[in-house]
Specification:
The complex is a heterodimer of chains A (386) and B (395). Chain A is an alpha+beta fold. Helix content of chain A is 53%, strand content 16%. The mean pLDDT of chain B is 88. Classes of the chains: A alpha+beta (386), B alpha+beta (395).
């Protein structure tokens, strides 16, 4: 620590160069933050999916419906604690561009299975009592400026009402908040009973089931049991953990996650070169000074340490500021602009740690080569060279 | 004036010739710019390629008819009677076998992706015989067409590459039915190449459907569109939405294209800022290592203008090399690179190729030159202002 003032003075030996290197690192790591957030967003909630939840879909495809009668039969499977179901409504609010997910959910069980959607008991009560009621995510409400009590017209694209019209009107009874970081607060939940009563057809089927099991260890066994129960029926099922389901879904988006990682590596490699080169140059210019230090009795290891400490300090300072900028300004801004495509956009704690670790590695690597050169420096040669 | 120009030439030539002596710094700066340009082009080539696949589906003379109020084939429904009325509408091209109108059923089946082995939503389209005449670019690449009435499918070449088990001769089991792959087809790079096709009359009972979801048809000419549309819209028996296929698919590509552009545009400024500071560092150090040379030149009577220009040219040269190599790399690495993603509007997979267009290459190189310009300006001014006496004394 006592060498800190010395390292500090070295850093500011060439003010402009240090400043530019710092700024280059800052922007690189601001970008790093955005890319980590993008990766999380394309992960489609894989990280936060419940370990004790399974998803039951039609074996052929998610778009094929399942009979409502399966609810009781699944409940009877040993190890199953609770069962709920959902229907994708697929409606349009004013313009197809205003895309968001609307789900018809099973009123008594839904919020019990999904405690991460947090609703106040009063709003929950109001929703229970209102046939055309809906609970919407806070982010969705703020996107369209909705308040509790508003009537929301949604044009059905899949479901037509019994009277032949397609305009469904919902009353906002409550807003839900995400119970933890990464939960999508842009959804729209209404009563399955309402859909069943009012839809001209298709109301007696559900999109998929979500179940909660008591022991996550038994997920594979219970999945198998459920699928066997409906084997050779007209509606065969495919049961998987919510995590596997989310992962398969994220994979559908395709190589984008991989492309993001390539971009990240390319940019970081580029920066490694730029910063590394600057560091090397700065040490080369100081050959004489380092020789003087050695003459004064600084050991080889200490000189190596000083050079590496300097490059690490520079890299960490740049990364810290860059990640801070990314976390406080860039990511929230980008997230706001991409909200309708990627509802969840934030830098997780592991992203910040990964960024700082990368910076440390960058500092070590760039300091190592010139540091070793400085360590091997023979005082006589260095002082002779002018 | 001649003297001034020859001064510029002399100093610039000196700068460029001595880049080799500043190999490390120059390479680093050029490499930083290379990465920026390559990444920029790669990201936007995704959007361009995706849109190209979507918009090359159909031509101005083909139309798609959906149920009124639906926004994609997935959510649409057309009853058997309505499909018959549509196929008799004026303006349709007719062949000896009947009107070129194909009533189709569009469903999704789970097929594992080759790369991840996890299930993906692959579109399975039941078509009528006229479908092959409606899609003019349809070509069979391998095997034969499915026979009507049989559980046989043909697979688009994009789907065959992206998903496992879709080779000719393979059997596929979806629900209670087993299907055999009998052919692989291409369709001029269109969306159909991401699909699996079969006989609609076989698909209907397999999926417990009685009607269709869309009618795809070819008109006598692009100009017959209004006649066709007006006749159908005025028909009180129908509740339908008529669109040109080109408009329909352009609309379907909007969301993903907008997302990729937004990402590209947001990531770009951060990358450019990083590269500008890298370039600034390189050029400042280039000027400072040569401060004695520059001062000597000034002392010999060279003006400050030529010095400024020479530094700018060096910076632009490095940027052009970095940008050029970056653009060339992006072109060879990404042009034609195939990927598949989900199209949210139809909830199904689209296989497409990245497209690096001349416009993208030009924009990328333009960004490189802009970085070079900004990165060279301040160091150039500094070089010109260098006090001769101090610089000569400096060692």
């Amino acid at each position: 620590m006592k060498y800190f003032p010395l390292i500090w003075r070295y850093l500011w030996r060439r003010k402009l160069r240090t400043l530019f290197t710092l700024l280059a690192a800052l922007f690189t790591f601001a970008l790093f933050g955005v890319l980590v957030a993008t990766n999380v967003a394309f992960g489609m909630g894989v990280d936060i999916s419940g370990a004790n939840r399974l998803v039951v879909i039609h074996k052929i495809s998610l778009i094929m419906p399942l009979p409502i009668a399966y609810q009781d039969r699944i409940s009877a499977v040993p190890g199953v604690e609770a069962v709920t179901h959902m229907n994708w409504f697929g409606g349009v609010y004013k313009d197809p561009k205003n895309f968001f997910a609307q789900m018809a959910v099973d009123t008594p069980t839904f919020f019990d299975l999904y405690p991460e959607y947090v609703v106040s008991p009063e709003q929950r009560k109001a929703w229970d009592a209102d046939r055309a009621g809906v609970i919407v995510g806070r982010d969705l409400a703020s996107r369209f400026g909705w308040k509790i009590g508003d009537k929301i017209p949604i044009q059905g694209t899949i479901y037509t009402k019994k009277d032949g019209t397609r305009l469904w009107t919902f009353n906002i009874d409550g807003l839900y908040d995400p119970g933890k970081k990464g939960v999508d607060a842009t959804q729209f939940f209404f009563h399955y009973e309402y859909l069943k009563e009012a839809a001209s057809r298709g109301g007696d089927m559900v999109g998929w089931y979500t179940i909660r099991i008591a022991d996550p260890q038994r997920a594979a066994e219970i999945s198998k049991r459920i699928d066997e129960l409906f084997a050779n029926s007209p509606y065969e099922t495919k049961t998987s953990t919510e995590k596997a389901f989310a992962q398969a879904f994220a994979n559908q988006i395709g190589n984008i996650g991989a492309i993001v990682r390539y971009v990240l590596s390319a940019v970081l490699f580029g920066m490694l070169l730029v910063i590394g080169n600057t560091m090397a140059q700065s040490v080369r210019e100081r050959t004489n000074e380092l020789a003087v230090l050695k003459t004064l009795g600084f050991g080889n290891r200490l000189v190596l340490f000083l050079v590496i400490a300097e490059s690490c300090l520079l890299a960490l300072a740049g990364a810290g500021l860059g990640l801070l900028l990314s976390w406080a300004v860039v990511t929230p801004l980008v997230g706001m602009m991409l909200k309708q495509f990627l509802p969840v956009f934030y830098i997780p704690a592991w992203g910040v740690l990964l960024g700082l670790a990368t910076a440390l590695l960058l500092g070590l690597l760039t300091g190592l080569v010139p540091g070793i050169q400085a360590m091997r420096l023979r005082i006589v040669d260095a002082l002779r060279k002018v | 004036m001649i003297n001034w120009l020859s001064q510029i030439a002399a100093v610039t030539w000196l700068n460029l010739r001595t880049i080799g002596q500043r190999r490390g710094a120059s390479t680093a700066a050029a490499f930083g710019i290379l990465v920026v340009v390559a990444v920029f082009i790669a990201i936007l080539s995704i959007a361009v390629g995706f849109r190209q696949t979507m918009t090359s589906t159909g031509d101005p003379a083909t139309v798609i008819v959906l149920r009124g109020g639906s926004d994609s084939e997935m959510t649409s429904g057309i009853a058997r009677d309505s499909a018959r009325i549509i196929s008799e509408a004026p303006g349709l091209l007719r062949s000896p076998a009947g009107p070129l109108a194909s009533a189709e059923l569009f469903v999704i089946v789970d097929v594992p992706k080759r790369t991840t082995k996890t299930d993906a939503n692959v579109p399975l389209r039941g078509v009528q015989p006229a479908a092959f005449a409606v899609r003019r670019n349809f070509r069979l690449l391998e095997g034969r067409r499915f026979e009507t009435g049989k559980n046989e499918v043909i697979v688009g070449q994009g789907a065959a590459k992206e998903f496992a088990g879709l080779e000719v001769g393979h059997q596929l089991r979806w629900g209670e039915n087993t299907w055999t792959v009998v052919g692989i087809f291409s369709d001029g790079g269109s969306l159909s190449e991401s699909e699996i096709w079969c006989d609609v009359d076989v698909l209907q009972p397999a999926y417990r459907r009685t009607g269709f979801q869309s009618v795809h048809a070819r008109l006598e000419s692009a100009a017959a569109y209004d006649r066709f549309k007006d006749a159908l819209t005025a028909d009180p028996r129908l509740d339908i939405l008529v669109q040109r296929e080109t408009d329909y698919y352009a609309g379907q590509s909007e969301a993903l294209t907008a997302l990729v552009y937004a990402l590209g545009i947001l990531i770009c400024p951060l990358m450019v800022a990083g590269a500008v500071f890298g370039a600034l560092n390189t050029m400042f150090s280039s000027v400072s290592t040569r401060s004695r040379e520059i001062a000597t030149l000034r002392a010999l009577g060279f003006g400050s203008g030529p010095v400024v220009i020479s530094v700018m040219v060096e910076s632009l040269f490095l940027a052009a090399v970095g940008g050029g190599v970056g653009a060339a790399f992006a072109y060879y690495a990404f042009n034609g690179f195939r990927a598949a993603t989900i199209n949210w509007q139809s909830f199904s997979q689209v296989s497409f190729a990245f497209r690096v267009t001349p416009a993208l290459l030009a924009t990328g190189t333009g960004i490189a030159l802009a970085i070079g310009l900004v990165g060279g300006l301040l160091p150039a001014i500094r070089a010109a202002r260098l006090p001769v006496a101090t610089a000569l004394r400096e060692l």
